Amino acid sequence: MATLLPPQPLIEVKGLNHFYGPPPGGHLVLENVDLTLYQNEVVGLLGRSGSGKSTLLRSIAGLIHPRQGTVARIASEDCPDPSVAMVFQTFALFPWLTVLQNVELGLEAQKVPAAERRSRALAAIDLIGLDGFENAYPKELSGGMRQRVGLARALVVNPSLLLMDEPFSALDVLTAETLRTDLLDLWSEGRMPIKSILIVTHNIEEAVQMCDRILVFSSNPGRVVAEIKVDIPRPRDRLDPPFRALVDDIYARMTARPADAARPREGVFPGTGIAMVLPHVSTNTLAGLIEEVDGTPFNGRASMAELADSLNFEIDDLFPMAETLQLLRFAELRGAELLLTPAARRYAQADVDHRKAMFGEALLAHVPLAGHIRRILDERASHKAPARRFRDELEDHMSPDFASETLKTVTNWGRYAEVFTYHEDDDQFSLDDPQ
Amino acid sequence: MTTTRLPSFSRMLRLTRPNREDAIAFAILSGLAVLVFRAAEGAVAPLSSLNLEPVTLAPVHLPYYALRTVLRMFAALLASTVFTLVVATLAARSRHAGRLIVPALDILQSVPILGFLTFTVTFFMNLFPGNVLGVELASVFAIFTSQAWNMAFSFYQSLRSVPGDLEEVCQGFALSPVRRFLRLDLPFATPALVWNAMMSMSGGWFFVVASEAITVGNTTATLPGIGSYLAMAIQQQNFHAVGWAVGTMALVILAYDQLFFRPIVAWADRFRFEQTASADAPQSWFHDLLRRTRLLPVVLAPLATLGRVLLALEPRARRQRVVVDGASNPWLERLWQAGVWLGVIAALGWTGHYVLTSLTLQDMAQALGDAMITMVRVIVLIVLASLIWVPLGVMIGLRPRLAERVQPIAQFLAAFPANVLFPFAVIAIVRFGLAPDVWLSPLMILGTQWYILFNVIAGASAIPNDLREAAGMFGVRGWQWWRQVALPGIFPYYITGALTASGGSWNASIVAEVVTWGDHHLRAHGLGAYIADATTAGNYPQVALGIAVMSLFVLGFNRLVWRPLYAFGERRLRL
Lengths: 435, 575
Known about the structure:
Chain A: It comes from Novosphingobium capsulatum. The complex is a heterodimer of chains A (435) and B (575). Chain A is α/β, with parallel strands linked by helices.
């Protein structure tokens, strides 16, 4: 704290662009990302799934090589050869190796002599609170214990930078909280051999609790849209007013529309026209969300943070739903608030058949792919069209995975609205009962 | 290095007092070792020894014959394993090699192995003139060809499905290729490899029987073994001897199952990729016994040392990670593709030339016509076997206690070489004056129908209980129950079984369409008989044509019938 030395950079990322799909072209996932990590800080990459933050993390880890841009490790006096190690969301433990063998893996690869390897691994296991489990196999451990093994395996190689890819999101709430607290204690007591931590998360509270600096990512393509310093003294209390205020502020920033007005209104999802990637959101969920916002506490206007709280959703789950409503003109995202349109409020009061009709109208008007399918079915005498052709059309614009999800989504919506139907057996769209 | 030796040395001191399990295990293992040496002696003797000590039907010699046969099978298994590790790894790691190897393996899986014998026996006998080893190798090679392709294919598929996050860990820690193979690829693929080796070993029996006593043109070689013992028993119409051979075979299969495969399956269970402990891990008494011994770990230590030495020799892991660049030199790429096409065209031209010069159009017509007949047989037999075994398999599979008992029996029957039972069919056909064209057919499926049975049993036991309860609650029974509950539930499993059974039946037609008992020769029309006759006559072009046509039919069957059905089952009916 007392030192006035300028912060020493550790990693420098410059002009990173990355695409999915074969060059040239492909789907842009990271757009012009610049980022400098300094020593002695915990940095959070906050964004929604698919925003490319894991891609950035893997670029820094050297696991993937971005199409354009550089990732440089900056050597300094107290860190002559910066190295990284990673903790995985899925733990990524070898089920046929014991806890000790899993932890020793990285050292073994570095050809550390057996005796030193053993003593360093045991020290890491001790540090991370796994004593007594040295000879256990991963399948004998609970999720929390497994992630501790993942952490020990990363720390034992003395990395300068610890990379964490949503490390707590596969754990239950209590276990995640315990692990976070333990990690923060080790960090603030300086007991870990690392200089910095870079953590990827989609949980805003987690980011505010753990990080000194938060980089907010927008999706499609992934870009850093905000950088937020967290000055709340540690240990941080979630119920503290400054903590809450910051969480709400970040909610607002994450919902903020992209600054450049040149983007079309549909731009919440990547791609335009029929090439728009549609998230898998069921019509029941959409109806439920409309009803919730229409209902008493909110009366047609809800802050995303409160809505997430009241529905017990992660922000990551809530955004695609809200944005789908926006796409269908059933709602508008204004700052951190979700506003229902008059149409949506009528929808909330309507009966099943009216709801379907309203949904169908919105679908054909505002989802270009749905309109496209319907038009082709109308044009054909048989009122039938193979799904293959739309899949191919989509795959010209996006990866096969996205194409299949998009088609699945539009099928689901079209079936609900009864604007067209789909037969799995012959893989065809059709107008089942032409009026 | 001393630091690494110390722990194992102190372990030695602690372990010097053998226990009771050591005594039992060593009795069994040393017995096996003596047997192996005894059998290996015979395998390198001069060829004249075969004539000095011809195969006799005295049951006293049977244990020795069985030993020779088993040794051949394990030699083939070892060769197949080495082949698998090398070739499949190459295919998975190198894009170029993969493009050649994978389709080749796929096709080789469909080639009738028995047809190979003609060529390989001649080849290997010329390789070691005047020594038994040549004939031995030909026999081992026949078994090898029945095992290697599908083992390699399964291993390749395992390597391609290694979990991405573990791959990233290896990449992140910059594990060298050797270490990555030993730490990730090999363990991950082991359970599938062991299972496949076990199934292949069962398949190998069929070919042992056919490959030990073989006549190609005017070359006859008879190796001491159960297969040739059986062949002689059939020739002399000796019922007792056939009985002895069948009994010995059953005992041998039981022995290696208990002493070799069960322990390995139990051991390989640790490599199964799952994060939760499974309730019913495979059990093996011999594995438990070996685990309780104290000296065995010390004896096996050299194996672990081998791995360590291998790793010690690897170059120091580079800190800078290798950038795998997707785009390689376009000119090299084009050159490679041109080379492949040239090879394909040359091979086609060469084969075409060979076939056209030595075969007439009439040969082709006959081979195709015979193939049609055999195809009808295979289809009818699969349908009949399905009609019998699907209902029975479902009944058994829905009763867990019964399934537990029947399943190993079905697997044993699948391992049992059905060709030893052929003579009984001949006697019956001759006695009742039946038409060989019809009544020889069931022999083709005698050995392979069990694949349908035990796959259906497995499928039926996997039908979730809640589905059965729901069906029961709504009173779903009769044909509706079969149509909507049982058949969809077992479909993917059934297809797996039927695919194996159909491929096996094609192959079996080579021995099933021409059958002999003493001086009774029965012959049915079909492609199998065509190949068998050509083999006996030493007519190589005809054998080659027969094999090619059969491969084409099996491949076409797989591509046009089984794969689409399998894909449909995977997509729609996977629970």
